[in-house]
RNA sequence: GCUGUUGUAGCUCAGCGGUAGAGCACUUCCUUGGUAAGGAAGAGGUCAUGGGUUCAAGUCCCAUCAACAGCUCCA
């Protein structure tokens, strides 16, 4: 007999070799019907795996990530089985479960899989699932595994197996399909009920640009048709919050083919929004001891040769600008750091002057490859809310913590609760990619790790994601459909101060090297506004929104009064306009609600006589009347309340 | 840059070999209406660009540009 401990702490005795499924059955048939995988001592396994020793277990259903994972992983195998039948000789790469669904990377040889082929693959999957095939696990030696896939002619699997250690290899089979796989899987493909293949795309084998591009098919499945319908409806809803759509609807920004791809044009309303954000950050930065500076959009090529950026990115950047005078070369600035370093160098500095914090909303230009452009989130010309902090080594951690505070203030103010923090370090296996000494890198990396610990910030450590001159702490926020975008970033840099020969005079009257922090709490104005749009669905907070109120006269007779009210509000810094179109009030309300204007002020005969406005709050309906002055005071108080949170 | 998809009126889209369409927006007129779409008339398009096939090309083919979903990249 063995002892099984359940999540509630209770312990039961079972026969040695009992399976997860039998365990579930022993509790209730309903549980057995719903359970998808089992966690045994923290390792997720198939329900059909026998348990031989005492263990702590957890039964995973659909609502657990482990349950979904097994379900979607088996769905990937089901899709592969369908593909094998439809495209004989197809070779398979990898086919994992992902956050929402699964994919499989396949090499269809000379055949081409197009989006229009997906329904046929779906139909085949449904046909196969109806056969309710058992999914069988088999542990296998490395040699047997190699022989199987060599014989099948699947070089991708052969390559994968070659990298595995003997004794840890398992196959999963259902019907005529066998795959190299660690599992865990469902017991039976019949559990897969609702299937939707979503898209087809190219994906490089093992993520390597130099290797063959396979065909990646994305799909998602659910135990119930209704759940699939709900998911597809969710995707439709998310599309409505797409910043590119809302940006157009609310007249925030646009692009022009004539101007060029990836070069956003900010419209008047978008400019108000952006200026409000800039003012907000400037106000915070002032409190934190930053000084605003302004630098030109170009600089001599030498500047980036010194920084190391030219060697690293020169070939893939906008190429140098040549002047009529031969031999002069300028670059559009792809970052602001060299300019700020030159500002630092304009004066000698004492240790007493540090830290020095130069901030600039600096517009930079980077040649992103065409396929990488994406709305406002990935563009070729953008404005960083940049700053460079020059400090003494002993000030580094404190300065780093203060920057984190600024980022938290901003995320708080805009209600970005679900951000993720990522510490990006060097790739220890590829030191060639980076400049600077090991000693400096180690100091910089540990400064970031320590700062996060001090703040109690849980951050993912990712190797190989550092900038070439230093490690960084990035803050990622998801868009409407769950794509992660890097917003705030803080980078520690010992290298540029050396390359630019930056100095300060210490208390010992000797020259010392300052440390530099690069930081951008928004990341860029473009990307930040994009993510903000998707988070708010275009319903911006009152202090930010381009139009705070609109006045709606009941009929043209009250247009004069409406404009009078508008002027009065304008004098009190309310951003207001008048909808004096020849339309009925119902129409004006509808149109302005759709423009997500927070307050609609309706004025007719009653209001004009009493010198008031009828206030209607967006989404909440009629709020009764107020005097014009009272309305202005209330709005400004609401805005001020927000601005005081820091 | 790579794979797949898509470019028709300001916007959303229909038309898929035979003289360019709808709804919304826009203009003018009627209406002056009290909390989410009042009515009528009108104007607006080298069908992304450049080639080709055809008696005839938004419609078929090729190239280029741009956008979309991924991949790769992201100082």
Structure description:
By secondary structure, the chain is α+β, with helices and mostly antiparallel strands. It has four domains: 2-61, Ubiquitin-like (UB roll) (Roll); 66-238, Threonyl-tRNA Synthetase, Chain A, domain 2, CATH 3.30.980.10; 253-536, 2-Layer Sandwich (BirA Bifunctional Protein, domain 2); 549-643, 3-Layer(aba) Sandwich (Rossmann fold). It is 36% helix and 26% strand. The protein has 20 helices and 35 strands. It has an eight-stranded mixed beta sheet, sandwiched between helices. It is globular and about 80 Å long. It starts with a strand and ends with a helix. The mean pLDDT is 95. The chain binds one RNA strand of 75 nucleotides through strand 14, strand 15, helix 8, helix 11 and helix 18.
Instruction: Name the strands of the widest sheet in spatial order.
Output: 18-22-23-30-27-26-24-25
Helix share of residues? 25-40%
Average pLDDT, rounded to a whole number, is: 95
Fourth CATH level, the homologous superfamily of the largest domain: Bira Bifunctional Protein, Domain 2
Major sheet attributes: 8 strands, mixed
Look up the CATH topology of the largest domain: BirA Bifunctional Protein, domain 2
N-to-C span? 62 Å
The fraction of residues assigned to DSSP E strands is 25-35%
CATH classification class of the largest domain:
Alpha Beta
Low-confidence runs (pLDDT<50, min 5 residues)? none
The total of beta strands comes to 35
Shape: globular
Q: Count structural domains.
A: 4
Which second-level CATH architecture of the largest domain applies? 2-Layer Sandwich
């Amino acid at each position: 007999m063995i002892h099984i401990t359940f999540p509630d702490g209770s312990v039961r005795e079972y026969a040695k070799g009992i399976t997860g499924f039998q365990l579930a059955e022993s509790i209730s048939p309903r549980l057995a019907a719903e359970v998808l995988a089992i966690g045994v001592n923290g390792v997720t396994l198939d329900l059909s795996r026998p348990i031989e020793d005492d263990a702590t277990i957890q039964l995973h259903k659909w609502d657990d990530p482990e349950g979904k994972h097994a379900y979607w992983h088996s769905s990937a195998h089901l899709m592969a089985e369908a593909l094998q039948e439809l495209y004989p000789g197809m070779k398979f790469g990898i086919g994992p479960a992902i956050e929402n669904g699964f994919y499989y990377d396949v090499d269809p040889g000379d055949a081409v899989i197009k989006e229009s082929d997906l329904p046929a693959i779906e139909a085949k999957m449904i046909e196969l699932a109806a056969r309710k095939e058992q999914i069988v696990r088999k542990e296998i030696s490395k040699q047997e595994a190699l022989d199987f896939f060599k014989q099948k002619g699947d070089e991708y699997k052969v390559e994968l197996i070659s990298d595995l250690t003997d004794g840890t290899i398992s196959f999963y089979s259902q019907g005529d399909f066998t795959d190299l796989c660690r599992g865990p899987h469902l017991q039976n493909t019949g559990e897969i009920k609702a299937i939707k293949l979503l898209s087809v795309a190219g994906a490089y084998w093992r993520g390597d640009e130099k290797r063959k591009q396979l065909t990646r098919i994305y799909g998602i499945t659910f135990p119930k048709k209704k759940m699939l319908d709900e998911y597809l409806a969710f995707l439709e809803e998310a599309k409505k919050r797409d910043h590119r759509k809302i940006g157009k609807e609310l007249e925030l920004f646009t692009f022009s083919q004539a101007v060029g791809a990836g070069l956003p044009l900010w419209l008047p309303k978008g400019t108000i929004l952006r200026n409000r954000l800039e003012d907000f950050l400037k106000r915070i930065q002032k409190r934190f001891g930053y000084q605003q500076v302004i630098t030109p959009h170009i600089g001599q090529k030498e500047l980036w040769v010194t920084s190391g950026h030219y060697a690293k990115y020169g070939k893939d950047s906008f190429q140098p600008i040549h002047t009529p005078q031969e031999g002069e070369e300028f670059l559009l600035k792809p970052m602001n750091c060299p300019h700020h370093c030159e500002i630092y160098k304009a004066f000698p500095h004492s240790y007493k002057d540090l830290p020095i914090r130069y901030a600039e909303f600096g517009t930079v230009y980077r040649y992103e490859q065409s396929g990488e452009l994406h709305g406002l989130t990935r563009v070729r010309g953008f404005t960083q809310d940049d700053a460079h902090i020059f400090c003494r080594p002993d000030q580094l951690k404190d300065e780093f913590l203060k920057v984190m505070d600024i980022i938290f203030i901003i995320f708080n103010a805009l209600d970005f609760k679900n951000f993720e923090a990522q510490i990006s370090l060097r790739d220890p296996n590829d030191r060639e990619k980076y400049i600077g000494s090991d000693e400096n890198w180690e100091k910089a990396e540990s400064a970031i790790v320590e700062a996060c610990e001090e703040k109690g910030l849980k951050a993912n450590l990712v190797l190989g994601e550092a900038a070439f001159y230093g490690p960084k702490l990035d803050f990622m926020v998801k868009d409407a459909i769950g794509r992660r975008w890097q917003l705030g970033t803080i980078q520690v840099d010992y290298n540029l101060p050396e390359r630019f020969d930056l100095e300060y005079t210490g208390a010992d009257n000797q020259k010392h090297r300052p440390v530099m922090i690069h930081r951008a709490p928004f990341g860029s104005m473009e990307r930040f506004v994009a993510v903000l749009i998707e988070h708010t669905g275009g319903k911006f907070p009152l202090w930010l929104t381009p139009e705070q109120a609109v006045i709606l006269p009941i009929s043209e007779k009250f247009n004069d009064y409406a404009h009078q009210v508008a002027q009065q509000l304008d004098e009190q810094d309310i951003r207001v306009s008048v909808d004096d179109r020849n339309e009925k009030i119902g129409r004006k309300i509808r149109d302005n609600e759709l423009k997500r204007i927070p307050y609609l002020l309706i004025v007719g005969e009653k209001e004009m006589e009493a010198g008031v406005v009828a206030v209607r709050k967006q989404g909440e309906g009629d709020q009764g009347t107020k005097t014009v002055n009272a309305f202005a005071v209330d709005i400004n108080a609401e805005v001020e309340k927000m601005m005081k949170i820091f």
